[in-house]
Amino acid sequence: MSKLKLWRAFFLLAGLYNLVGGFIGLIDLGAGFERMGLPAPNYPFAFQILLVAVMILGVGYLMLAWNPQRHRAIAWLGLLTKLDGFAFTVWAIRTGQLPDSAWWQPVFNDLIWALGFAAFLIAVPDRQEKEST
Prior knowledge:
By secondary structure, the chain is mainly alpha-helical. It has one domain (3-132). It has six helices and no strands. The two termini are 29 Å apart. The model has no long low-confidence stretch (mean pLDDT 91).
């Protein structure tokens, strides 16, 4: 399997993960909070907006899967959002806003995906940079 096909599969998986995860979160918002030992939020619409944004990123990842070189810039959005998610969740755990049991979320949901996005950005050169040299 070619390197580009592997990246296409990675971004297809990332897109489906965001779409399915966001949708499940929308239809059962309280379940994620229960898993972390937290009460359901007082302002669910704020989390619903966040979940819709997650799903929109999923559409972007599917675009990236369709043509990784053409839509390479979307990988920067993926990397930055995953790093932000990791940093803010770790900060929330360290400051007591989230229980210690919430550690799995930043590691498995954000850090691992961020490493994949970063690896793609390093491994696959920007076509525009290549054309200008």
